[in-house]
Structures are given as structure tokens and as C-alpha cells.
Amino acid sequence: MLSHRRTIAIALLLSAASPTWAQPAKQTQKQTQEQTKDKATLVREAFASPYGKALTAELGKSLRASADPACLTDKGLAADQLEPRGRDIVITWGTRMLESAFALIDRQAADDAYPGAAELERLKGNADVKRYLAMEEPMRQAKILDLIFEHFDRYNLISRVKLGAVSPPATGNEALLRLDPIDTTEEKLDELAGKSRSKALKRFLQLSEEAEAARAAAIKKLASPPPPLPHSFFKGVEKDLAELCIRSGP
Fold first, then answer.
1. 3-class DSSP state of 161
2. Using CB atoms within 10 A as the burial measure, which of 36, 47, 158, 226 is most buried?
3. Beta carbons within 10 angstroms of residue 21's beta carbon
4. CA distance readout (Å), 104 to 79, 157, 215, 219, 228
């Protein structure tokens, strides 16, 4: 059961980070490096979104409430420095989590490449598909943010890092929950797909579903040995948080 939960968690990370996971079977070192850059860009852009800014503000509140006052004085840290520095820490570790999750599946994908990946990639250049992906972006960004903060909070709880939770499900912050664009974006996408007569878009959505099935099959092969739980990718973040006077321990 634990192995099953782990593979589901990895699947969520992968689906959040990219609208289409499928990759061509053979990739150059440059292509691999570009994909890594893309993940870092995805995380930065997610944090620059309205929802990302709201979560960053919530992180700042948590840091200011949790930081040790005497430590702040000793380090000469002002309260208004905590939010931007904390944001950079979460961006760095969140990117690392996505990269680590993708590394697990990329090794499997090299042997079980989705045959429609090249066509799927070409279709992204179609105007109707571009419009669909542009509309999808707020949802993708929100999923990235939710997963990063969910597992950041979980790691801090398990590791006894004395930092208050940030993610809306953990805090019950209704204002933040209302800012989450996932539901409204899904409704708009369903409406667009239902009304569109674009053959390219319909083909793109069909191939995307097939790619999703291929991804699920590939992830199942990770069950032995089981992949690490996503929150474990944050191991060591407490050292960076300690620089912001966030204590850990009993």
C-alpha cells in the first residue's frame, strides 16, 4: 500500500509539472539540460503568478511568526527580509523536488517511450493548441504550488521544523483557497474543448490522454524498489531555514 501511495504521489508531481509528459525516446545532453531549466522556469513562473504571490505572502507570515527573535537580532535580520529569502528557499527546494521526481521516470521512459510523443510535440505549435495551453497555465502553476507547499509542510512537520504550515489545506485559509484557480480553469478548458471544432486540438487532447496512460504504466514499473515519497526530497531544507532563525527539534 505504501508503494502504491508513493507512485501516486510521483504521478501527481509529473502531471503538475508538464501538460504533456511524453518525451522522444532519444535525447541529447543539451535537451536534458533544457528540460531541467524548464522545470526551474516553471517553478519561478508559478511563484510569480497571483496565487504564487498569495502563498508567498502566507509563507512570510509564517516565517515572521515562527522565527526566533533573539536569533534575528544576533544575525541582524529584519522581519521584512524573511519573506523574500524564504521564497527563494522554497523555490530552490521545490525545483529540486520536481527534478528528482522527473529523474525517476526519465530513466524508465528511455526504454518505454510513448510512440506519439513527436506528433504531440508538433501539435503544440498549432494556434488552437497554444490557446488551450495558455488557458491551462494557471491550473498547472497552481498544481505545482500546491504540491510544493504540501510536501514542504509535510517534511517540516515530520522533521519537527518549527515553522507554521503554509498550504491552504493544512491551514484551512479560506481566502487562499478561493484564490486557487484550478476549478475555474478546468471549467473553462472543458467548455473550450467541447465547443472547439479544431481537429488539431482534438488530436492533441487524444494524444495527451494516451500519453497519460503511458505515463501511468511507466510509473507502475517504479514500484520495485518503491520511489521515495516527495516530501523526502526536502531533506536538508531545515539547514537553510535555520539561517532565517527557524528552529528544529523537540
1. strand
2. 47
3. 24
4. 39, 25, 12, 9, 10
CA gap 174, 179 in Å, rounded: 9
Rounded CA gap, 189 and 157, in Å? 36
**CB 244 within 8 Å of CB 85:** yes
> Torsion over CA of 33, 10, 158 and 148, rounded to 10 degrees?
60
> Tell me: the pLDDT tens digits for 83-109?
999 999 999 999 998 888 777 666 555
Query: Residue 161's beta-bridge partner residues?
Result: 248
For residue 160, count CB atoms less than 10 angstroms from its CB and return exposed for 0-12, middle for 13-18, buried for 19 or more.
Answer: exposed
**HSE-CB for 17 with a 13 A CA cutoff:** 30
DSSP class of residue 221? G
Q: CB–CB of 179/162 below 8 Å?
A: no
155, 241 contact by CB (below 8 A):
no
At position 62, the amino acid (one-letter code) is S
pLDDT band at 112 (very low <50, low <70, confident <90, very high): low
Query: How many angstroms separate the CA atoms of 10 and 216, rounded?
Result: 10
Instruction: With beta carbons less than 8 A apart as the criterion, state whether 43 and 142 touch.
Output: no
User: How many residues appear in the chain?
Assistant: 250
Q: What are the strands, taking DSSP E only, across the chain?
A: none
What CA dihedral angle connects 61, 62, 65 and 69, to 10 degrees? -100
